[in-house]
Known about the structure:
Layout: E1 6-7, H1 17-23, H2 33-50, E2 56-61, H3 64-73, E3 81-86, H4 89-100, E4 104-109, H5 118-126, E5 133-137, E6 139-140, E7 145-146, H6 149-159, E8 164-168, H7 180-183, E9 187-191, E10 202-207, H8 209-218, H9 228-236, H10 247-263, H11 265-285, E11 289-290, E12 301-305, H12 312-321, E13 324-325, E14 327-328, E15 337-341, H13 348-365
Parallel strand pairs: 1-13, 3-4, 3-5, 5-8, 8-9
Antiparallel strand pairs: 2-10, 6-7, 9-10, 11-12, 12-15, 14-15
This protein binds pyridoxal-5'-phosphate (PLP).
Pyridoxal-5'-phosphate (PLP) binds at residues 11, 63-65, 90, 137, 140-141, 168, 170-171, 191, 200.
Amino acid sequence: MTTTPLLMIPGPTPVAPGVLAALAEPVRSHTGPENAATMIRIQEGIRRLVGSAGARVHCFAGAGTLAMEAAIVNHAAPGDRVVVVSHGYFGDRFTEIAGALGMRPDVLQVEWGQRADQDALRGLLENGNPPALVCFTHVDTSSGVLADCAATAATVRAAATDAVIVLDGVCATGGIEEAMDDWDVDVLLTGAQKALSVPPGLALLAISARARSRRSALGDIRAYYADLHRWDASVDDPRKYFSTHSVSLLRALEASLEAIFAEGLPERYERHRRVAAMIRDGMGELGFEPLTDPAALAPTLSVLALPDGADDARLRAGMAERGVVIAGCLGPWAGRGVRIGHMGTVTEAQAARTIDAAAAVLGAHA
Ligand SMILES: Cc1ncc(COP(=O)(O)O)c(C=O)c1O
């Protein structure tokens, strides 16, 4: 008998049977009334998750990186200053995209595992032209750092009133509270494959009124599929065509959102915190310690240093043989530790299975 491998990487995450069943439904017309109703429910659900009453929600085929690119190309022009607060590999991606689009990235490079210092951010913002955009990441999946979104957005707003604030929620949305309106964030982007518990393939963006007027002021931009203006009519009336929707993935996201709201948001976020604590306690007993500053630990994943003498590749291969898949570290931490995702549908029982698999491998090599 074979058991389904348990995916404890920080995305993609396990997908519930009800969501997989939605994926297997007959394909619908992308401009028909059923798909339009699904899209409207997705827009409402995403607004609830990101904490916005009035954001315009875009959802199209593509990965999280497409949502990042759309967030940048629609709200700044070549030559504009783009301030990036980078907590790791995915913060750096904002810098790369802005550079590739001919903008002038200006980076607050935070030491891996630490949270951005607000005074340093204020200094960067005030030193130079006002930035068109400020980008940061809610949870950087490489360093495990949970940003202080309220403080970061407040620092930006105080120093650069007109900046469009872009927040990457790829490793956060659906697993932790987000409050786009209260924080005064303008673009909250995310993907389907992490705490939303849907297979990869959807790019999502919630866009504020400030960001929409920035987009209008820019006129023509160097993008076509990623040009949010070209999508606007089909966002407002999803029976209108711009480009063919990934109808089956939309159904899966609709089904997952139903399950998310049926669980209840406070209950879901609390479960994430419980499972995170369980993973850290259990792995801690085996000698794994967070590489991330304790003050910045995210509830959606743990980035853990290996115990003395343990080998990254051997540990992960041994766990995979026992049916549990975890990830290695990236960048400067590659080889030093492992990353365990605990977001989406992940339960205490699955956390226990993960800890048991690690214990069994370490025991086998002791
Ligand atoms: C925080 C964060 N942002 C952006 C991305 C990029 O998303 P994708 O791999 O779907 O392009 C990822 C992917 O893991 C991520 O973790």
